[in-house]
Amino acid sequence: MTTNLEDMRRFIAELGAIAYARFLTDTAGGNISARVGDAILMTPRYAGSRYLWRLRPEQILVLDLEGNKQEGEGEVSREYRVHCKLLNEFYPDGAAVFHGHARNVLVFCAALQPIPPVLYATEKFGVIEHVQDAPAHSQDLADNIAAAMQPLRDRLRKQAAAVLAPKHGLFVLGRNLEAAFDAAERIEGNAYCILMSRFLVAP
Known about the structure:
Structural class: alpha+beta
Helix content: 25-40%
Largest sheet: 7 strands, antiparallel
């Protein structure tokens, strides 16, 4: 786990490219953030649609705790409200947020169905539930996600807590960025197993 601002900016840029390659997010959006002290580091707007997640460390923005840009190239993501809300309200237990449009998880977001754990690797995250619906990028969405995370604080001490935003995507709050990313990938694999198991024929 890195605590240096410049190292974290490099790590976030690298992680964005990995997430895109592994279909954990897409060109339509997604965001990655981490809190280091009194700074929030976050991917910029258009990370997917304009830059295809090929970000340079200089493009990772340095924000204050209210979401105002202090440093970095590009515009602040429209989803900054969720990240700032979580990283203020749950820090230091929750120090990083991964929001992605993972392709199998999105099926559950579109169908408005929860994701139950079907693998040992995802049991500690419990059932991934939907938050109350609200428009993307809104303060209402940020408030709804934070409210849904409150009962999941114990999961943060193990690794991470996650919720679904209806018709939108997965939000994971982790004790650090490695934990949040790992949880997102496990949940995506879990969603894939649920979907594919429906094609199995009983012996």
